[in-house]
Amino acid sequence: MQAAVIVFPGSNCDRDVAVCLEAATGTAPLMAWHGDAALPDCDLIVLPGGFSYGDYLRCGSMAANSPIMREVVAQAHKGAAVLGICNGFQILTECGLLPGVLMQNTGLNFVCRDTRLKVSNAQNAFTHLYQQDEEIIIPVAHNEGNYFADEATLAGLQEHQQIAFTYGAGDNPNGACLDIAGITDRSGKILGMMPHPERRAEAALGGEDGKRLFTGIVESLA
Amino acid sequence: MSTRLNNLVDVTDDIAREHGLTDDEYKMIVDHLGRTPNMTELGVFSVMWSEHCSYKSSRKWLKKLPTEGPQVIQGPGENAGVIDIGDGDTAIFKMESHNHPSFIEPYQGAATGVGGIMRDVFTMGARPVANLNALRFGEPSHPKTRHLVAGVVSGIGGYGNCIGVPTVGGEVNFDASYNGNILVNAMCVGTARADKIFYAAATGVGSPVVYVGAKTGRDGIHGATMASAEFDDASQEKRPTVQVGDPFTEKLLLEACQELMASDAIIGIQDMGAAGLTSSSVEMADKGGVGIFIDLDKVPCRETAMSGYEMLLSESQERMLMVLKPGREAEAEKIFHRWGLDFAVIGELTDSHRMVVHHQGEEIADMPLGPLADGAPEYDRPHVATPKRPAFDSNQAAHPAIVDSLKSLMGNSEIASRRWIWEQYDSMVMGDTLVGPGGDAALVRVHGTQKALAMSTDVTPRYCFADPIEGGKQAVAEAYRNISATGATPLAITNCLNFGNPERPEIMGQFVGCLDGMGQACLALDFPVVSGNVSLYNETNGTGILPTPAIGGVGVIADYNKAIGNGFSEAGAHVFVIGGSHGALGCSLYQRHILQDDTIVAPPAVDLQAERAHGEFVRAAIAAGSVSAAHDVSDGGLLVALSEMTMRHGIGLTSPQQGDAAYWFGEDQGRYIVQVSAAQVDGFTAAAQAAGVDVNEIGKTGGDELTIDATLTISIAELTRINQDWFPDLMSGKTA
Which of B120, B176, B459, B534 has the most CB atoms at less than 10 Å from its CB? Predict the structure, then answer.
């Protein structure tokens, strides 16, 4: 199983997620540069957290139009697994691989803290090592994590079991519709989530709840 | 031929005064040059000789601070201090003020403060791994306070979060003396291998001088001069001298520098901070004992028709100056262009010991380097010692019930939870934060190792005001204590010395006193100063701030698995107080906020020998595994510290201890509260006896309440609510 992490100018969780991927796969992921037109040969593409291109236009919008993303979209359409965390989730919605948008938090401030998450769908390629409806703790750190989509899109997400994670009752940090923390495409092989599983994948960092996401996708793709 | 931009006006005595130079200083400049300076030269001299850049009022006293020890690799004088943390690893750190800009424009002022201190650290080859800060605001009820708190916090977060360095700790105080002059002190800690440290000194005549990073604009011109003047009601008009930060460009600059630093192409490197291109080129060339030639036509600009004066004094952010080995330009240029950054060879080193500047094809400045770098006069300003104050007599006071005082203090501006602030900071990015905000000291793992750095910022300005010497000692001692409470060994400090107008003898007396106390503590605790910054003239309309010498302490623990937290973590454990409790209520929060007594009396005395002995004992007990949680006793005294330990994990305490207000709220120094598992009690008390350390058992952990027999019972839930509500209520306008 070979993973590749896309490095945009302004990515800042690229190393953090690479550490988790290496722990899960036994091999260091390939680091792919935003300006490259070709992707390395890999099974899993990861879009890390950070502030790609400074997030100066709208979070993720410039990254969505970078040369490498044309290739990521093409690979995704051919069935490659894609994981977008935080800024990576924003990029996935901007490039149309996932529906909806991530708006500014309703509190109007950046928020960094642990959140209680419910695993709403423990059946997809990423989440199958969790129990259905299991409550886990994963931190968030973002200013634009307020997931929004129109009624029809939200109904579609529910109908096709595309909501992977929701914030626990009373613990929604950003005002997201339906408490959505992470969604997949219909195949369940493209996951975008605001919380950072890579920040809670080791006991020394407070817990290992995020680890099964990485080992889960590695098993699925093995 | 373009319009001439430079030296269009002849310098007069009045123009020199407008540049903040005294008549004597101006005369010295004329003597050094052997002629009248032109406008460009006057501008350069005025910033290099400003208080901010030259330390002319403070140098005499800074020299007295202890700066050496086997752990010190680089002391003060470089971009940041460097200490040895074992195994060929180093920690590189510094703290710096951005007070004046933050008062005028809180978001950008604070943001560029964070950006500037990070550049100081990564210019030395380190990767920044942690940011901390020390913030002081005016009274909560002051009409500007909420606006300033919101802006500063947002600016610190906006910069640090984007660049991807965790903000892991800090401290905040509110006091009326900061109403017109807030303090924003930012600290950055980085790590580097000992054989990969870069210095500023430029050597090698003919070596290329290279400009990298963002383009130069007109922002921040004379920022260093602004930072060296008092405020008045017209200071808001200085908004154009506040720089604008771009954390995205700094992130690119960081990565590009790290990439180039992996090679051996760099001879010297210096960040363009205060006084921009001027101070960076002067410092690099002067430290290397060479001269420097700069052609301003080569400098990347983002505005048109900038004069040489403007380019030399601009404080545009996210720029660096480097001297490369000849012939390595192409390799370096490729890296910077790959990261989308400007790269320009703008000059070369010469053997002239002078700084020569060309613009529009003509020479616009030619100055000797020595006088620019070190020639500013050193002032021994008159100072009067702060009078010794009487001890506090609390016998006459009407003391409320202990439980009411506790509730009041837990919801007090000085003790209330700072969660509202630190949830706006990304404290976890980089994946090595073991203990973030809320610990005694923050703990950040050295990436890929078993080691962790412990870091804390501390000072108690009300103590420093009442007795600068004891207050100076206390600031260093508290940093030492906070680091020791995690199990880490304190190694060295950085400082950020914020004071009022040094031309007033009583203010200079505060400065001299605080440095005396700090120096004593550094020596006694083997905790030298390796870097720092001085911020004077923190006054508005003639009223000075409380003397605020902020200390940033750094320590290391060899195995982070041995580090402990500061909350009760198990039921049935025994709780001990280390150090004697003698009821020191002078200058305590209890005196100020419960008794509402603002009389200036003696603050708690600091016994440095006991401080060291207690710290060594606590660290040994943690290493031996007998202490499983520890918290230092500071603001609010014993009962506040105990409450904080119960709130951390929701585990209560029952104590049979009898005591009055002075016992429970006294702020005696050198104390810790520790949790000892039942099985470890005998070993712990024997070790204390052997070490001659005063330990007293105060109670046992368990339950969900804090109970002091016959005195009070309060649920942790209520304590937590009181403690958590204050800040959100303030910021939403419900209180104050």
Answer: B459
- From chain A, the residues in CB contact with B158 under 8 A are 110
ipTM: 0.97
Closest CA of chain B from A14, distance in Å: 9
- In the Cβ-directed half-sphere of B431, how many Cα atoms lie within 13 Å? 23
Return the pLDDT at B589.
Answer: 98
User: Reduced to 3 states, what is the DSSP secondary structure of residue B553?
Assistant: strand
Q: Considering only CB atoms, which chain B residues are within 8 Å of A198?
A: 431
Per-residue confidence (pLDDT) for residue A35, from 0 to 100: 85
> Quick count: other Cβ atoms within 10 Å of Cβ B33?
16
pLDDT 10s digits, B151-207: 999 999 999 999 999 999 999 999 999 999 999 999 999 999 999 999 999 999 999
In total, how many domains does chain A have?
1
Q: What is the DSSP letter of B15?
A: H
Q: Residue B426 is nearest to which of A15, A53, A112, comparing CB atoms?
A: A112
Show which residues of B are catalytic: 52, 98
3-state SS, residue B704 = coil
Q: Is A13 on the interface with B (CB under 8 A)?
A: yes
Interface contact B339-A109, CB threshold 8 A: no
pLDDT surpassing 90 at residue B368: yes
What pTM value is reported for the model?
Answer: 0.96
Q: Looking at the complex, does the CB of residue A10 fall below 8 Å from at least one CB of chain B?
A: yes
Judge whether A144 is closer than 8 Å to chain B, CB to CB.
no
Report the chain A residue with the minimal C-alpha distance to residue B422.
Answer: A112
pLDDT of B239 over the 60 cut:
no
Whether B251 has its CB under 8 Å from any CB of chain A: the answer is yes
Which pLDDT score, from 0 to 100, does residue B1 have?
A: 46
Q: Do B428 and A196 touch (CB under 8 A)?
A: yes
Q: CB B431 to CB A9 under 8 A?
A: no
A98: domain range?
3-221
Q: How confident is the model at residue B219 (pLDDT cuts 50, 70, 90)?
A: confident
Q: Is A50 in Cβ contact with B430 (below 8 Å)?
A: no
Q: Which CATH number characterizes residue A185's domain? A: 3.40.50.880
Predicted confidence at residue B244, as pLDDT, reads 85
Q: Is the dihedral of CA A47, A51, A53, A57 positive or negative?
A: positive
Question: Is the predicted pLDDT of residue B448 greater than 90, yes or no?
Answer: yes
Q: Write the CB contacts of B618 (distance below 8 Å, at least 6 apart in sequence).
A: B484, B485, B578, B627, B630, B672, B674
Query: Which of B272-276, B686-690, B721-725 has the weakest average pLDDT?
Result: B272-276
Residues in chain A with CB shorter than 8 Å from the CB of B427 are 112
Closest by Cβ to B431, choosing from A9, A112, A205:
A205
Question: A-chain residues within 8 Å CB-CB of B252?
Answer: 9-10
| Regions in chain A scoring below 70 on pLDDT | none
Q: What is the DSSP letter of B492?
A: E
Q: How confident is the model at residue B413 (pLDDT cuts 50, 70, 90)?
A: very high
Q: What is the three-class DSSP state of B283?
A: helix
> Tens digit of pLDDT for each residue in B618-649?
999 999 999 999 999 999 999 999 999 999 99
First to last CA, chain A: 6
* Contacts B340 to A, Cβ<8 Å: 9
Nearest to B340 among A9, A12, A19 (CB): A9
Known catalytic residues of A?
A: 86, 196, 198
Write the residue in B157, B252, B429 that is nearest to A9 by C-beta. B252
Bridge-based pairing of strands B489-498 and B529-535 is parallel
**Sequence-ordered list of residues with C-beta below 8 angstroms from that of B401, at least 6 positions apart, any chain:** B712
pLDDT at residue A37, rounded to an integer: 83
Q: Please tell me the distance in Å from B250's CA to the nearest CA on chain A.
A: 9
The whole-number average pLDDT for the span B536-551 is 93
As a whole number of angstroms, the distance between CA A99 and CA A77 comes to 15
Q: How far apart are CA B37 and CA B355, in angstroms?
A: 14
